[in-house]
Write a structure and sequence with these properties.
single chain; 313 residues; mainly alpha; 80% helix; globular
Length: 313
């Protein structure tokens, strides 16, 4: 059954904007956690710490969503939805948003910092519109293509001449951020399709986090062989911060999925990307990050370009 987004447009706009502010805070605290023990002391592989952090983030979020579902007494119904066609599409979306998108996001944070990561990943609404054009035949107007081009050019500017004062590995972080863009853009499109009929935003998020956690666990145990370090991270003081950060991230996801369900994926992602500005503000306040005029200007261009694409639809 097709949903009428217009009746809840104000609620959807507030939800999408709130998701941006909350995700900006999540981004900054995630950067702080990756600088804590035991993450900062792991040198076996550049991917180990961020991947395990991504797993623990979504695993903690899945626990929060399970608690919320049990309180609302709809946990069994949510599990039953996994067998439905809509639930399977949400699970597929989880693979792009979680193991692909989130791992890329945290790998980028650990290599280029939360500010650059938030700015680059903020082009995912434009990428989502591009994938809609490629796979669904949704055509963009000249205004839409202008916005997409503006975002891409801003990304190139950031990548061509980076400020390396606090950067560990810019090429790796830049590529990881682009992978994040692809994953998140596909997640929004696929998840919107999954929620079109019988899946609510909270049910979709519970399915998403559960699916993501299981795939992460398989990656951690069998691909990167990080079982020992995972146990170490679970028993460290940083896990307290991770659980609290996951709560912030969960609230952001709830607002984001609600926005997707009420005003549609394109507009919701166009409003959600304000997290790049919030991440810079929180980064300067919490992490003592330095002000970068280029980062601010490119972030504004990325956001403006993505909004142009969003309004085109």
């Amino acid at each position: 059954m097709e949903k009428d987004y217009r009746k809840k447009s104000k609620f959807g706009v507030v939800s999408a904007l709130s998701s941006g502010a909350l995700w900006g805070l999540d981004t900054t605290i995630s950067g702080l956690i990756l600088m804590m023990s035991p993450y900062i002391s792991i040198n076996e592989t550049i991917f180990l710490a961020p991947v395990i952090a991504a797993f623990l983030h979504d695993f903690s979020s899945a626990i929060w969503m399970t608690i919320f579902s049990i309180i609302k007494k709809d946990f069994r119904h949510t599990i039953a939805l996994l067998r439905s066609r809509s639930g399977k599409f949400v699970a597929i979306a989880a693979l792009f948003g979680g193991p692909i998108g989130m791992m890329g996001y945290l790998i980028a944070i650990s290599n280029i910092g939360p500010g650059y990561t938030a700015a680059i990943s903020a082009m995912y609404p434009a990428a989502g519109a591009f994938f809609s054009y490629i796979f669904l035949g949704v055509k963009l107007s000249k205004k839409g293509w202008l916005g997409l081009s503006m975002s891409i050019v801003s990304i190139i500017i950031l990548g061509y001449s980076p400020d390396t004062s606090n950067v560990v590995n810019f090429p790796l972080g830049f590529i990881a951020a682009i992978v994040c863009v692809v994953g998140w853009s596909l997640e929004s499109v696929i998840c919107a399709y999954g929620m079109k009929e019988d899946v609510s935003p909270k049910e979709a998020l519970t399915i998403r986090q559960m699916t993501s956690s299981v795939v992460y666990l398989l990656i951690v145990l069998f691909i990167i062989k990080g079982g020992t370090f995972t146990v170490e991270a679970l028993t460290s003081k940083s896990m307290i911060y991770m659980v609290l950060t996951a709560l912030v991230g969960t609230l952001s996801y709830i607002c984001y999925y609600t926005g997707i369900d009420t005003i549609g994926p394109v507009k919701a992602t166009g409003l959600n990307i304000t997290y790049s500005i919030w991440a810079m503000i929180f980064s300067m306040i919490i992490l003592g990050g330095q002000f970068s005029l280029k980062l601010v200007l490119c972030s504004l261009l990325i956001i403006f370009g993505s909004v142009l694409v969003s309004k085109d639809n």
